[in-house]
Amino acid sequence: MSRDSWIATLAERLVVALVSAILAVLTLALYPVALLVLGGGAGGGVEVEIGAQFYSFVFSKVGLSTVIAASLAGFCFGSERMANILSFFWGTHDFWKTVAAVIDDKICTFQEERNFSLWLIVILLAVLAFVMFELNA
Fold first, then answer.
1. What's the number of domains the chain is made of?
2. Global pTM?
3. Phi–psi pair at 94, nearest 5 degrees
4. Same domain, yes or no: 14 and 57
5. Domain limits for position 1
6. Does residue 70 sit in helix, strand or coil?
7. How far apart are the C-alpha atoms of 39 and 56, rounded to whole Å?
8. Residue 99 sits in the same domain as residue 87
9. Separation CA 11–CA 15 (nearest Å)
10. pLDDT tens by residue, 59-117
11. Is 106 exposed, middle or buried (CB count within 10 Å of its CB: 0-12, 13-18, 19+)?
């Protein structure tokens, strides 16, 4: 291995480590925002409290440890594997498509076996969610 290729490989690994650390910070910082936006206020303001608790968790030693672990993983694993790891946490990995397909298959099977229509399942899930939120309030 020539010296130039070794330096190029090391430089690439350092850049991947830096980008992994930045993306870990963005992931940790934007998670409460996504929770607040996607929650839509259905929990009666609970999302704001969870977001505040999560921010105090993120900006502690645990959050710093997570960022350091992400940068070390980026350095050790390389760009392709780190892209797969980050895509898992951002929800763009093939795993999530597989999970959605399995859930869809289970709902369709349940629908066919029980002879329920989809609107009835949606209504029952909405009632269940309403009851759960009322019990927590």
1. 2
2. 0.57
3. -60, -25
4. yes
5. 1-92
6. helix
7. 20
8. no
9. 6
10. 778 888 888 888 888 888 888 888 888 888 888 888 989 998 998 898 888 777 777 67
11. exposed
